[in-house]
Design brief:
There is one protein chain. By secondary structure, the protein is α/β, with parallel strands linked by helices. The chain has two domains: 4-258, P-loop containing nucleotide triphosphate hydrolases (Rossmann fold, 3-Layer(aba) Sandwich); 325-482, no CATH class. It is 42% helix and 15% strand. The chain is built from 19 helices and 15 strands. The chain has an eleven-stranded mixed beta sheet with strand order 2-1-11-10-9-3-8-7-4-6-5. Strands 12, 13, 14 and 15 form a four-stranded antiparallel beta sheet that branches. Strand 12 and strand 13 (466-471) form a beta hairpin.
């Protein structure tokens, strides 16, 4: 199953779709000179996917804070908080799956780099239970992953580059999908850019940037000239989440804008030179009224208020399913069975599976997933053993026998229990490994040994090397089979 969004149209007027689930696994690099429509593209991507996935925006210019008004993002003005506050809030963000915009425009460049490094590192180091899928959008990425230190200290560059490298190279396993945008590919560290598998290339003029863009798009150097001729708002897209061959995309309209809007032409006032000279060089009136005091900025919000908003964010979302409980359960059963059928030999994390579960439920008419993450873990383990219907009386004895079993071992135990109940051969190591989320035969052997020590199974191997497993809680045993 895919969750596609439209980012614009191709040269024939057909929608160009981005597969958000594929994007989470393969990351995205956006490149374009100033004025090419790069920020507009990011805004379109964020708006279209806001209801599908958690979003974290690193915003050095404060352009994306307006997402809060229309889509409920929490805005964190980094200039109002210290490092400890940033760490605490970043931890809360992963825990509560809140979409946020970290606005860095009040900070100097070096402070922006250190703040972003602290924030991204905390997201990266979150506990495993908080590894929910999230799009992490970094605008002006060349500032945070520069090729050379430039005007900032080596320490700031090292911290920022390490955080960006972790995001792009190792973030996928932690649910973090990097979407980075840059004005100059030549100024972006190569080990950061190289980890993206999807590309959207906008207008650029310098030969070195065109050459790198052409290499990433798989184009010949002589074809790179078309990158120079791209109009504003048009990009060349390529990648598993976009298209298998380069496609020209005209980015679609957006619902929100920047705080300042776009600058338009404004003719100067009509006046003769003598009038301007008098206005500019006139002496000040010493006895005139004193100038008005500068307008005071609003006081910064306490960090506790921001964290309280993050904690309340999940409750603020509309959580009422459109269907009643009696209609929810068939949807849950069908979605769980579909996920197990589509999973194959893959072993994604529970957080990613739960995100997939929520998307599939919405596709079937529910506003939100009707069960929480702990309940999903148990129901998914049952579904792996073919017990997706939790109310089926056939599974009551097996669930009762499974009570001493740790949560992560529930799926392989129920697989064994069902085989024993139906008199079928013992599941082989491959089936048990798939249910346990591993590919290691050694881990399967340790799993069986541990469950034997718990007293929930008894494993026997005959002289022919065939294994059978008894379940004392059921008083039954599987048939013998090759392990």
């Amino acid at each position: 199953m895919t969750a596609n969004i439209s980012i614009g149209t191709d040269s024939h007027g057909k929608d160009v779709l981005v597969d958000v689930e594929e994007l989470l696994a393969t990351r995205l690099l956006v490149q374009g000179n100033s004025g090419s429509g790069k920020s507009h593209l990011l805004r379109r991507l964020l708006e279209e996917s806001a209801a599908m996935v958690q979003q974290v925006v690193i915003d050095p210019e404060g352009d994306f804070v307006t997402l809060a008004d229309a889509y409920g993002h929490v805005v964190i003005d980094a200039g109002d908080y210290n490092e400890r506050d940033i760490v605490r809030m970043a931890g809360r963000i992963r825990e509560h799956r809140a979409s946020v915009v970290l606005s860095l425009d009040a900070l100097e460049l070096e402070a922006q780099m250190k703040c972003a490094a602290t924030f991204l590192s905390t997201l990266f180091d979150a506990p495993r239970d908080h590894w929910y899928p999230a799009l992490v959008v970094v605008d002006e990425a060349q500032m945070f992953a520069p090729v050379a230190a430039g005007d900032v200290s080596d320490e700031a560059r090292r911290l920022s580059l390490a955080a960006m490298t972790n995001l792009m190279c190792r973030g996928r396993k932690r649910g973090l999908a990097g979407v980075i945008a840059t004005q100059r590919l030549a100024k972006l560290a190569k080990n950061v850019a190289a980890e993206a598998s999807n590309f959207l290339m906008g207008r650029t003029f310098l030969d070195i940037d065109m050459a790198r863009a052409a290499d990433l798009l798989g184009m010949e150097r002589r074809q790179a000239e078309q990158i120079r001729d791209l109009e504003r708002g048009r990009f060349l897209g390529l990648g598993p989440a976009i298209a298998r061959r380069p496609v020209s995309v005209k980015i679609g309209a957006v619902q929100t804008g920047t705080r300042g809007g776009s600058h338009k032409l404004m003719p100067p006032p009509v006046a003769v030179a003598e009038d301007f000279q008098e206005l500019l060089f006139a002496r000040g009136q010493e006895d005139g009224p004193p100038p008005s005091p500068p307008r005071a900025d609003p006081p910064p919000r306490p960090a506790e208020d921001i964290m309280r908003q993050l904690a309340d964010a999940p409750q603020a979302k509309p959580a009422a399913p459109q269907l009643d409980f009696g209609e929810n359960e068939p949807v849950v059963i069908a979605v769980l069975e579909d996920i197990v059928a589509d999973m194959g030999d893959a072993a994604p994390g529970v957080a990613a599976l739960y995100q997939d579960f929520g998307v599939r439920c919405r596709m079937k008419g529910l506003k939100t997933a009707p069960i929480d993450l702990p309940a999903f873990r148990r129901r998914f383990a049952m579904a792996q053993a073919g017990m997706a219907d939790a109310d089926d009386p056939r599974w009551r004895d097996a669930l009762r026998a499974a009570e001493p079993v740790p949560e992560d071992m529930l799926a392989p135990f129920l697989l064994i229990a069902r085989a024993a109940m139906e008199g079928r051969p013992c599941p082989d190591d491959h089936a048990l490994a798939r249910a346990y989320g591993t590919s290691s035969p050694g881990r399967v052997r340790r799993l069986i040994d541990y469950m034997e020590k718990l007293g929930v199974i008894v494993a026997r191997t005959d002289f022919g090397g065939r294994r059978s497993i008894g379940v004392p809680g059921l008083g039954l045993s599987t048939a013998a089979a090759e392990g």
